[in-house]
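## retry 2 of 3
previous attempt timed out at serialization; input unchanged, resubmitting
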Amino acid sequence: MIQDFVNRLDPLAQNSKLIIFGGGYSGQRIASAGRSLGANVLCSRREKYSQGADFIFDSDKEFSNEILEGATHVLSCIPPLSNGKDPLLSKLRSQLLNSRHLKWIGYLSTTGIYGDTKGKWVSEKTTPNPKQKRSIRRFACEKEWLETQLPVQILRLPGIYGPGRSAFDSLFNGTSKMIDKQGQVFSRIHVDDIAGAVLFLINLWAKGNNPQIVNVADDMPTSNLEVITFAAKLANKPIPSTIPFEKAVATMSPMALSFWQENRRVDNNLLCKQLGYCLIHPDFKSGLKNCLAELEIN
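## retry succeeded, writing output
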């Protein structure tokens, strides 16, 4: 439940107004947590009747600047345009530059900008080396944001999971695949820790502790096999048969294959050790227990 982790965070400053562009899975979770901490939060969707749509933002359509009036914090969860440009800056650059109240801008990026390191650890000091087209576009947007000289903080995220988007979903509908690729690991982050880290970093920024780039990942990069096996045991379901990677490739979508072509471990030392954020779900085991509990409640 959202309140379980909100109680661990400090309230936001009085009269805070947080505008979230891109109210999808992560954006909605951040919005709920921000409201619980006393902030006025408005969240965008592309379609008027989408769940959680406080206002509509589409970079191809007209936008009312009134939404930004009095905004103290802005978070962009929107992916790059096909040309590599950032949709928010393409549409609202001048309004953001001229804002009188803006104290912090967060941009949710990806650890994919580090590229493939053959399983080695990456940190904020690692030189970006994106190879996938989507990661190249993300890195271009990072640079575009930082070049504005606005109070921008880049949050780099690995694979996102949480209630309604975890190993249980494929396990329960029979589509789960135990793909065995020797040495392959993935870093992850539970959606609650994305929300927790965003709100923690907003408060930290106000105190003058403001690193421009922060990796937001849990403590335990691990294999697909370990995650599915643990989920199956938790749910008392049969563990799916293992498929060699070489065989699984034949039925993979280009997107899925691109994830398996990169192998890295994401270091969260800056966020957790230096800045002092305490992970709500420090590993996939804690996170999956939360996901199953949410399923049982609903």
